[in-house]
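Reminder to self: tokens first, then the designed residues, so the page reads top to bottom the way the pipeline ran.
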């Protein structure tokens, strides 16, 4: 297999277009699965994905490949040039980002992972298997190393670590889920997660059925992450400017609109400790938030909401120039700060009567104009009375808007790293806080387990 750096340079040398960008990502992945409190499968894999972006005038063509055969290189380059010539002018056309020289680690081989990354995890799992709860779950560690080179002299490289653990515990008729996010498994404390799951299964020994309605509800970090991710994905500048998203208002956007009296800040930040992501654009597609013409562009911290106020929307360079606004690059993590710093346990203790959720599932958009979404609760909804968890209750379907939740939230706790349940396969790096919503809308009872 041609070294990734060599593939970049050879493809650029073959290019006959007005401009060219080559991206190569080498992936090393390890996984571990268990069921019925028994290890079942594990494995390690490696793969490569690469793409050539060719610019002809103001048109662009992108062709991707997973081939590791150097003989295919010229064919892919020519195919991207043909695609560029066959396409019309690109709305997001802009001069390619320029650069000079390669970073110090440009020639370093791709990072590798292996089954040994799970050594401590398997030891803690073995102890968990001997407990009273039946455990199911999955752990994965991925190291994706990306090289980006352009005909304008740009050379960039980044290795993205991604680790996730999910555990589903069962006892009697109750089920509890928990998840962790980690860059390298060195910081994982599985015993604490298993203790928490056991506690929740204990709560499930008493069952109460409740009707649909609006309830004071405590959203744990995982549930908050899933809802705030959907909000972040919706911070699209062009759509807001053109009047067809929830961030639109008469004559413009909702920039500057106060959502909450609480000093909440929702940001993506490539340098957030433990949540780092590539500090530059590396994309093989264009949409209203990112552009292939921006490949290699610096991507810094963006505060979508600052101190409770809508602060930024996503704009690639072309749209930013069109609307006269700053460029803002969507990021691959999400951090919510500004809460009181109290724990979820403290929030439970101060609740007279309400619901405590575990996580959300099957979230789908209902109305883009208000960002109304629907979804289901799953793996544990609990009734809190007089500061204590009194019983497990039935699951619900909910209808809520992340924007409206920020308007109505009355308490936000301590920020902590968490794993979203719904969006974890696409977005796993989050650090958010639990929330208290005084009137969370459970629109109907659900039979989901």
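Designed residues (449 positions):
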């Amino acid at each position: 297999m041609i070294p990734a750096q060599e593939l970049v340079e050879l493809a650029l040398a073959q290019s006959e277009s007005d401009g060219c960008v080559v991206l190569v990502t080498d992936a090393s992945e390890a996984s571990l699965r268990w069921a019925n409190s028994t290890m079942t499968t594990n494995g390690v894999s490696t793969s490569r994905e690469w793409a050539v972006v060719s610019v002809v005038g103001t048109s662009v063509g992108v062709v991707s490949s997973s081939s590791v055969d150097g003989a295919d290189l010229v064919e892919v380059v020519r195919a991207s040039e043909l695609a560029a010539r066959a396409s019309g002018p690109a709305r997001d056309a802009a001069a390619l980002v320029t650069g000079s020289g390669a970073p110090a680690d440009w020639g370093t081989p791709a990072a590798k992972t292996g089954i040994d990354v799970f050594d401590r995890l398997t030891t803690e799992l073995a102890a968990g298997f001997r407990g009273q709860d039946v455990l199911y779950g999955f752990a994965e560690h991925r190291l994706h190393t990306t090289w980006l080179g352009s005909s304008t002299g740009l050379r960039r490289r980044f290795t993205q670590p991604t680790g996730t653990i999910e555990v589903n515990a069962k006892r009697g008729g109750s089920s509890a889920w928990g998840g962790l996010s980690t860059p390298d498994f060195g910081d994982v404390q599985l015993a604490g997660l298993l203790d928490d799951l056991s506690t929740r299964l204990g709560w499930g020994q008493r069952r109460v059925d409740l009707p649909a309605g609006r309830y004071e509800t405590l959203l744990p970090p995982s549930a908050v992450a899933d809802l705030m991710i959907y909000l972040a994905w919706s911070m699209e500048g062009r759509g807001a400017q053109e009047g067809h998203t929830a961030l639109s208002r008469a004559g413009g956007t909702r920039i500057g609109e106060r959502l909450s009296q609480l000093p909440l800040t929702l940001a993506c930040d490539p340098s957030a400790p433990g949540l780092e992501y590539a500090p530059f654009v590396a994309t093989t597609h264009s949409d209203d938030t990112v552009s292939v013409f921006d490949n290699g562009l610096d991507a810094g911290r963006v505060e979508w909401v600052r101190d409770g106020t809508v602060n930024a929307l996503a704009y690639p360079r072309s749209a930013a120039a069109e609307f006269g606004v700053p460029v803002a690059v969507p990021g691959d993590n999400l951090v919510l700060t500004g809460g009181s710093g109290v724990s979820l346990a403290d929030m439970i203790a101060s609740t007279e009567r309400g619901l405590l959720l575990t996580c959300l599932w099957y979230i789908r958009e209902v109305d883009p104009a208000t960002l109304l979404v629907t979804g289901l609760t799953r793996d544990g909804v609990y009734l809190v009375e007089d500061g204590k968890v009194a019983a497990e209750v039935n699951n619900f379907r909910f209808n809520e808007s992340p924007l409206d939740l920020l308007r109505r939230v009355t308490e936000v706790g301590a920020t902590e790293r968490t794993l979203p349940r719904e969006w974890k396969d696409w977005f796993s790096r989050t650090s958010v806080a639990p929330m208290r919503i005084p009137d969370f809308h459970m629109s109907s009872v659900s039979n989901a387990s």
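DSSP finds nine helices and 22 strands in the chain.
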